[in-house]
Amino acid sequence: MQTEKEWMERILQVAQQDERVRAVGLNGSRVNPELKPDCFSDFDVAYLVTDVGAFTADHSWVDVFGKRLILQTPNLMVGAKPREDGWFPYLMLFTDGVRVDLTLVPVSGAQAYLAADSLTKILLDKDGLFPNPPEPDESSHYIQPPTFAQFDSSCNEFWWVAPYVMKGLLRGELMYATWYINHVLRDELLKMYAWKVGTESDFSVNLGSAYRFLPTYMTEREYERLLCTYRMESPTACMQAFNQCCGLFRLASHAVALCMDFPYPDYDEKVSSYLRGL
What dihedral do alpha carbons 11, 14, 19, 25 form, nearest 10°? Predict the structure, then answer.
């Protein structure tokens, strides 16, 4: 595996030698002052270019970076909708294990690019597109406080779907029950827990992609209970996961309601009473 320095030199060299590239930005964990990058950290790079179409007309230009294991172009995936901002990302995993997410951005969108992510560092600027770029920080990644409508919607969705899980378990349909835990209940649980962490930290915490840092802000017991919600290999385990999911959501939603001075909706009480009668 090449070093971080060698990869950065290659990324900048390609940009410097191509007149169509007018600036280079780096985003994400590699410019986060609160994190120490490791060998698994991606290079989230942007090339600010004069003509995106001149690059995308022949995608083989990315071969200049080296041999790849796999390439993904999200804009060209089945079902993808054209991006209104004209950005075009190339997601690349190379044979040395390094991943580079390289996005082409029209120079006309330079300020929008800079504003989109506070974890942005300008590495090259041939034309002074970014005269006074701010120092990277995590502010745009902080948990945002929910409105009451968002809080109420999350509670409503969780307790609306909870009977689906019980119905699946009572029918012996384990895959049906686990699907709703995996794709609805836990999503709402993690969202609610993020808000709980936000209320405890004045909403100045970055939990990272896919809530990767959430365990840091949970008690050991809470984290054990959360892990239980992923263990659903049998009807008994699935029922335990369901109960833990409901208990944790109740704990987190009560805490958020209290701190945000929100009225606690009655979905929990009514639906829980219904479930106990099944």
Answer: 0
**Three-state SS sequence of 166-219:** HHHHHHCCHHHHHHHHHHHHHHHHHHHHHHHHHHHCCCCCCCCHHHCCHHHHCC
186: Cβ–Cβ under 8 A, 6 or more apart, which residues? Answer: 229, 230, 245
Contact 140, 28 (CB under 8 A): no
**Residue located via tokens 């029918």:** 171
* pLDDT for position 1: 60
CA distance 248 to 252: 6
- Beta carbons within 10 angstroms of residue 188's beta carbon: 23
- Give the pLDDT confidence of 237-276 residue by residue, as tens digits: 999 999 999 999 999 999 999 999 999 999 999 999 999 9
